[in-house]
Design goal:
This protein has a 7-stranded parallel β-sheet with strand order 3-5-6-7-8-9-10. The chain has 17 helices and 10 strands. Helices cover 49% and strands 12% of the residues. Helix 10 links the parallel strand 7 and strand 8. The protein is an alpha/beta fold. The protein has a single domain, classed as TIM Barrel (Alpha-Beta Barrel). Helix 5 packs parallel to helix 7. The structure holds adenine and zinc ion. Zinc ion binds next to loops.
Length: 340
């Protein structure tokens, strides 16, 4: 079988479940916002900034990511960031998104919680009206910070519960196991929110187990280190707990040296509910289509596998059954490429 071609992959109806809005901040928009807010960046040009995007680990990346987010100050900034991402989604036939935002990255700099969430939500509303892209928003806690400040953030979110579908957990994984936030996640569940968590990106399979058992996540973000634990693989196959996998992120952060080493298609063939996502596309070299394309190029992903991955993302989403049905109809209408 031949690998799926790129125009076909771009046209493939897609769903994105693992995307940090702050990680979709392209250098061009970063410079625009810096100027608008009277800030100066420690780079002379967009090219100089982009060329700094060489990472040896998750922490290398996070240092630049938090620095970049400092240009986000006003409701309009968060709105424009969100709309820029949704424009890219529209161009790549993404039907539905469930983005993350990191309020603590901003509230710690004195930006008020309502400024952040109102700006993002007005962008999501405009994206639906303009492009028909449906969405659900996920609030992530920064795991390198402590439990008490996560509780404070959850309290700030309480008046906005109708705008949130879930809480998540991100930032530096090593040394910050999911169970550090068991009580915060229990409270979030009591408030009616679902839960997801980054686990097994760089960290060990034990973190995936505790994300599932202690945080009771509906999905595991990344989760690729499950390959190191046969019993976990069997459990994930049996329960169909989805993994939101981010291929370009994993190679750019040196989780795998080469895309040829990436396990996603092996996991798909073993019956796990794996999905393709872009994570921080402005930093890692591409959005949804580029991630699918990387799998076609390096792993000879077939059109059938691409459709299966997209179908898993519909299943794994928090969209209502009616919206899932609509999205499946669009996916089922796709014809296989005739030649490559
Ligand atoms: N925050 C933004 N991107 C992240 C990633 N890939 N892992 C953990 N935290 C993040
Ligand atoms: Zn992520």
């Amino acid at each position: 079988m031949t690998a799926a071609p790129s125009a076909w992959l771009n046209a493939l109806p897609k769903v994105e479940l693992h995307l940090h809005l702050e990680g979709s901040l392209e250098p061009e928009l970063m410079f625009t916002l810096a100027k608008r807010n009277g800030l100066s960046l420690p780079y002379d040009s967009v090219e100089a900034l982009r060329s700094a995007y060489q990472f040896g680990s998750l922490q290398d990346f996070l240092d630049l990511y938090y620095q970049g987010a400092e240009v986000l100050r006003t409701e309009a900034d968060f709105h424009d960031l969100t709309m820029a991402y949704l424009q890219r989604c529209h161009a790549q036939n993404v039907m539905h998104v469930e983005p993350f935002f990191d309020p603590q990255t901003h509230t710690d700099r004195g930006i008020a919680f309502p400024v952040i969430i109102n700006g993002i939500c007005s962008g999501l509303t405009e994206g639906f009206e303009r492009y028909g892209i449906s969405s659900h928003l996920i609030l992530c806690f920064l795991r390198h910070l402590d439990e008490a400040v996560a509780f404070e953030t959850l309290a700030q979110a309480e008046p906005y519960l109708d705008r949130l579908v879930a809480v998540g957990l991100d930032s530096s994984e090593h040394g910050h196991p999911p169970e550090k936030f068991s009580r915060v996640f229990a409270k979030a569940r009591e408030m009616g929110l679902r839960t997801v968590a980054h686990a097994g990106e760089e960290g060990p399979p034990e973190y995936i187990w505790t994300a599932i058992k202690d945080l009771q996540v509906s999905r595991v973000d990344h989760g690729v280190q499950a390959t190191e634990d046969e019993s976990l693989l069997a459990y994930l196959a049996e329960t169909q707990i989805p993994l939101t996998v981010c291929p370009l992120s994993n190679t750019r952060l040196c989780v795998y040296d080469r895309m040829q080493d990436h396990p996603i298609l092996r996991l798909l063939d073993q019956g796990l509910c794996v999905t393709v996502n872009s994570d921080d596309p402005a930093y890692f070299g591409g959005y949804m289509t580029e991630n699918f394309q990387a799998l076609a190029d390096a792993l000879k992903m077939t059109a059938e596998q691409a459709i299966a991955l997209s179908d898993h993302a519909i299943t794994a989403s928090f969209a209502c059954e009616q919206r899932k049905h609509q999205m499946r109809e669009r996916l089922n209408a796709v014809s296989l490429p005739t030649s490559t």
